[in-house]
Each structure stands twice: as C-alpha cells, then as structure tokens.
Write a structure and sequence with these properties.
Length: 209
C-alpha cells in the first residue's frame, strides 16, 4: 500500500506542467514554440526572460523535493518510498498525461529530489556539467556528458553512493536501480535534441565543404 501511495503522490506532483501553465498565462503555447520542450530552458528561449526560466526551474525542482519529502513525512522511515515517488514524479514530468504525454527533460525535478535522498548523484552530475560547459559552452552537451559520467561513477563506486543516501538505502542494489532508472529516463529525453544537433552539425559541415 505504501508503495502505491508513494507512486501516486510522485506521479501527481510531477504531472503539474509548470512551464506550460506559466507560459499559457502569457498567451504562449510552449508545446508549439521553440523546441517544444516543457522545461526551464525552452521557457527562457521563448520568452527571453531569465525570471520566467528560473521560476520554471525552481518550481519543477520543488516538485521533486516534495515528491521525496511527503513520503518521508507520512510513511515508515525508509529509502524505497521516496525513491519510487521521485521516479514517478520524473516520469510524469517527462511524459505528462495532461499535455499529450509531452514534457520536460527531468533535470530540475530530479535535482530537487536527489538533493534530499541521494546527494552523491547531483554532486557528480553538476561537477561534470560545469567542466564540460566551461570547455564546450554547450548546455545540451553538458547535460548528456554529465548524465553519462554520473551513471559510470555511480556504477563504479556503488558503496560511496550508498553511504551518501538519506535515509540509508535498503541495499546497494536498490540504490543502483533507483539511480540508473532516473538517469536513463533523463538520457532518453535527451536523445531527440542530441540527434537534432548532430543533424545540424553535419549540415553545416556539408555547407562548408
């Protein structure tokens, strides 16, 4: 029963389409503007407003934080309940049932939740992203590399990730399942924009030749 309730809590919180609702108030349909991604970056690109972009980011992060905090508050003390809730929140954020299963890429929501229960994940992710961005100055490339490196580091150092789980994960295997599932969802949401950038890059190379 607790697993089901945790899943429902996370799914409902994650399904709040923050960017869609905020931009709709401005008369903008984010689903048909820019990249069509329902997240902070596209919100900023469309509106040219840092305030709007940051507002979307923080609200989406709060969705992840609440999806972890509420199960911890009401259900028996343990890692699995908030972890399942966060996974469901990220899933419904990325494939939102209220807007034809379109959505964001899950980064802000994942960050908000993992900061509470698995801070090792965002620590590795953010460090990698900063390094890649400083070298390449490409946000999407930073996202993809950070995701990939975070997955490798977590799988290579499972004990460290386990030691920095709060509350302590039931087992290393349960933490690995949670971590890999979360990062795989985020990676899948980056496949389309990654392919688009590759297509644009190949087109530019052909034009130069």
């Amino acid at each position: 029963m607790y697993y089901l309730l945790s899943s429902v809590i996370g799914y409902l919180l994650g399904s709040v389409p923050t960017a869609y609702l905020l931009l709709k108030r401005k008369g903008i349909n984010i689903l048909t503007e820019g990249t069509g991604n329902v997240g902070a970056m596209n919100s900023f690109d469309i509106t040219s407003s840092k305030v709007t972009g940051l507002m979307v980011f923080f609200i989406d992060a709060i969705k992840g934080l609440l999806s972890v905090y509420i199960p911890l508050l009401f259900f028996p003390f343990g890692f699995c309940y908030p972890a399942i809730s966060l996974l469901c929140a990220v899933l419904s954020h990325c494939y939102n049932p209220w807007i034809k299963f379109k959505g964001g890429r899950g980064l802000a929501t994942s960050l908000g939740g993992t900061l509470l229960i698995a801070p090792f994940i965002p620590a590795v992710w953010i460090t990698t992203w900063i390094i890649v961005y400083l070298i390449k100055r490409n946000i999407l490339l930073g996202n993809i590399f950070a995701n990939f490196i975070a997955l490798i580091v977590i799988l290579s150092f499972p004990q460290t990730a386990f030691n920095y789980s709060f509350p302590k994960a039931d087992s290393i295997s349960s933490l690995m399942f949670f971590s890999t599932s979360l990062l795989i969802i985020i990676f899948i949401r980056h496949i389309d924009p990654m392919m688009e950038q590759l297509t644009q890059f190949n087109f530019i190379k052909k034009r130069i030749k």
